[in-house]
Amino acid sequence: MQSLNQAGHKPTSGANHWEEPMSKLHRFLCAGAACLMAAPAIAEDSILVGHLVDYTGPTSFVGKQYGPGVSDTIKYINANGGIDGTMIELETVDYAYKVPEAIRLYKGWKSDGMVMMHGWGTADTEALISFVAKDEIPVFSASYSAHLTDPTGKAPTTQKPAPYNYFYGPSYSDACRALVQWAAEDAKAKGNEEPVFVHTGDNHPYPNAPKEACAEYAAEIGLKVAHPVVVPLAPGDFKAQCLTIKETGADYVYMGNLGGSVVSLLKSCATVGVEAIYMGNPWAGDYLAIEAAEAEGVVFPSSTPFYGQEVPGMALVQEIVAQGEGIGEDKPTHHYIRGICAAYYMKEAMEWAKANGGITGENIKQGMYAKQDWVPEGMEGVCLPSTWTAEDHRGQMTVAINQGSFADGDVVIERIAETTLPRRDDWLGR
Amino acid sequence: MNFELLFQLLINGLIVGMLYGVVAMCFVLIYKSTQVVNFAQGEFVVLGAWVCWASVMYMGLPFIPAFLFSLAFMTLFGILVQVVVLRPLIGEPVISVIMATIGLSIFMQALMNWVFGNNAERFPNVFGEGTVSIAGLNVETAYLVSLVLSVIVMAVFFWFFKKSRWGLAMRATAFNQQIAQSLGISVRQVFALAWAISALVSGIAGIVLGLVNAVSNSLAFIGIKVFPAVIVGGLDSIVGGVVGGIIIGVLENLAEFVDGQYLQVGNLFKVAPFYVLIVILMIRPYGLFGTKDIERV
Amino acid sequence: MAHLPYPRPAGDFRVTYESDMTVFKTVAAHRWAIALAVIALALPQFADDAILSQMIMIGIFSIAALGLNVLVGYTGQISLGHAAFFGFGAFASAWLFSVTALPVLITIPLAGVMTTAVGMIFGIPAARLKGLYLAIATLASQFILEDFFARADWFTGGPYGALAETPSFFGILLDTDSTYFYLVLFWLVVSYLAVANLVRTRDGRAFIAVRDHYLSAEIMGINLTRYRVLSFGISSFFAGIGGALYGHYLGFVTGEAFNILLSIQFLAIIIIGGLGSITGPILGTVFILLLPQAMEFLAGGLAQVFPGIGHGVAYIKEMSIGAAIMLFLIFEPDGLIHRWRLMRASWKLFPFSH
Predict the structure, then answer these.
(1) What are the pLDDT digits (tens) for C275-299?
(2) pTM
(3) Per-residue pLDDT tens for C139-156?
(4) Rounded to an integer, what distance in angstroms lies between the CA atom of residue C24 and that of residue C216?
(5) Which residues, 6+ apart, have CB-to-CB distance to A402 below 8 Å?
(6) Which chains reach chain A with 3 or more Cβ–Cβ distances below 8 angstroms?
(7) Is A19 an 8 Å CB contact of chain C?
(8) Spatial CA neighbour of B192 closest among B172, B166, B153
(9) Is A272's CB within 8 Å of B252's CB?
């Protein structure tokens, strides 16, 4: 039985998503056979990292990009010596964006001795804030909710301090603020005296995250803010919603959803004839979505270069894609590259921790604060300089703004602006 | 009050409602002739869309042959479902039959996600990118084509039930299975036929929806929308299904109007039909056109 | 089910009505039940957390499924909205704690009571509707409650969800699987005793009469409306208890968890376990919760041979649930409990099983 368990728990990386419960079932069958024994300890000199991915749920459109970004990178790290010799045992589980499933998995990993976790969505990451704080398990999430950026709870609006939550890139709110700022300038350049801004998205933690903060800033810099319009996260026929958007007279439409929903919204609104510029959140815009919607002039933020762009670190990115499973035949989107960055920051924080008393959650947390304007080694030009401090988890305040259009069967994306927002205290945690 | 917006929303509701009506009609057809409530109707819609999409994209068929192929496929599929899943359950209590179709819908949904993927996939443009303006509202050409198609389907239905031999057999079976059987009607064949027709027409609706919105598993939402529609119209009335569908389509858009203009609660268009459903069930459970069920002991 | 032989040991003659109405049919059954309870009590000493968390989930879902069985199996009503009541119980308990700061062990039954009230309100249509129409009405209540969960910020925390406090028992925090297990076990035993006894009472017989032929029942003087709504109330009570236990176990409650799929799972549990049986819901829960894991295991093995299967594991798990529902309805409509009784009967009567 012991050996079976070992087979289920591959000590090296690349554990596929069915292997984790398989070992649980082994244990269960084992119990049935009355050979009650403790679960095997994790193999010598390896650490357990949980990895939540959504390959089959409502956010799988980008989940299938970011998830492999993380797991391919960790596979590459392990193949090249791990964390100074310590292997990362990554358990990747497709939880289909179900919050209770995420909590259940988290608890299981915790009792198996997980030292840190790569999370996914806003709903589950925010649900787990107090758990990971209590258990001292750092989480690198793919949720960029600003609610995760206040580690001490000093901001008056913060409901739950999030001392162990990190993410790579600008928060949803900051990305939206940068877009709004760009919109204000764009409107001024076009001579539009009173541009109207509207937020669209489902009534769900992820699209809701920047809703109020961004509207507040838009009003502050002189945009007229219309009532937000609720658009479901599942794709569908959104002509009714588009008519409402049209009625608000919006010039700048923020899209809080992603994937199929964004595609449907762009198509339905094009049919109804909404004349506005669409601005996506960090997950809404990539060449796949623009291609599917055959959209024109979609504005979206990014925090890495696109695949194949000529920057020093791109060779390493290509190496990771080549050695990993990648995302099939298509070229990876920038979401995949963000996954690489998240994994690399984790790696260097773990290296710091190992050199300073061992890889534990608390030491990894300290490792996150060890450097300023931090770029992981080998990722120059790919991962942008980030700074986390014990009082401020807004790693990045710089937002690159892109515009993509579909023309003649191809998507053309160009960078139209780069904004560095001020690190305002009243923006912390919201 | 913004009358222009209201008017456009109502037209939108009418058009979308026609499609609900078509699917509701399929639902009623099965219920009326076989006393089965098909919770997998939405999955039938999605399956039709996927099959057509796959035969265009993978088998390289032009649209019209692909369309016909999907219809043939759906007909066979409907018969298969009836024979394999529902025939063994004849005479079982309501809950068993309901659960069987629910099981079928879970099964089909997962299988289709696996086979066709869980992304939204675009059809190649068949009717062009064109849009048509109706009273100020731009509508995809595909929708209009679908409306024409729906009217044709409804006309064919009407003729089929009023004039054809099979239609008569189906009406007789719906009225009383035992009497129909004693008149030499093969009830088994009638059941299979009802499922075949229902699957076929659902497939048409799915292809139309796929053309307009891209094909994805979320098209199955229409399978839930038919419940308010058929309850409003009356569970055993085919005309009622169509009218109910239109009413629900209009109601949704009305809810969106009230929501967007006054209440600002969001998502009202999604739940409004279900409040109406409960109200209708409480005051007039047999719907607008349904027959009142009188029990004699 | 009624035609199954239920062989009794020699010498066990039932000479009074009372002895025919005992909770446990035989002395042996009584002893078995006590033995199982003792084994369950000792379990946390031996089993590891992975097994215990499975047991806790099985216990929680069994309680809720038992409630549904009162409604569907005993009263013959249909509910496609059980998950919404389950969720309401989870939110109610979390809300009660945050508002009143009562101990969680008290908010759990209170949440059950609140859910009862809500269940009876949504059960009112049952006074007028039956069969299919009732199924559709409960489907509507499922969607209406789901919408309520996403909207009622004051009660549920809106789309973000609500934190659910870890219960403590006289200062002992029940924050580990082995301690929480006892809380679930306690409620499981209480629920089972309650329902087993309910069936023996006047009200329980009224439920069964309503199920078997509602017109005859009415003619015999049973108030249909009262018993139908009462049945919704009782079933919601157990859903609420189960939901509250679920919420406090996970520590966090979000509305999206309590969707129509979960309602369907509850129905699947009682159909697969056996409608109108006390033990059925446990068997059904074990089956439904372990089936996806077994499929995962199987698919994992198959993936070694056919690599393509690896990507479909999540779908295979879902498909297995759908297929199980259909196959049970076609081949074993009386559920696992029926199969178990057949096995027991043939074993007891061996070699004269006919």
Answers:
(1) 988 889 999 999 999 998 899 888 8
(2) 0.88
(3) 999 999 999 998 888 999
(4) 29
(5) A285, A299, A300, A301, A302, A413, A414, A415, A416
(6) B, C
(7) yes
(8) B166
(9) no
